[in-house]
Amino acid sequence: MAPITLSDTALESASPEATEERPLPKPNYAFAKRQRDLAKQQKKEEKKLKKAAAKTPPAETPADPPAPDADKMDR
Fold this sequence. Notes:
Elements: H1 8-13, H2 16-19, H3 29-55, H4 70-74
């Protein structure tokens, strides 16, 4: 029995890109890890600054006059 092969017309119709094998690029795990670490560090710093801002009251904020009570306005 003869082995099964593609006909010459089938090989000619295939594009050259399809017949050439190109290796897939390898993922750069070190770069991805560095980016994750930088993002994590930035979030941590932002959280730290937010906590520090919430801890210390703003010193230069002008005092707002107290709002009138709604009950007193209706009378």
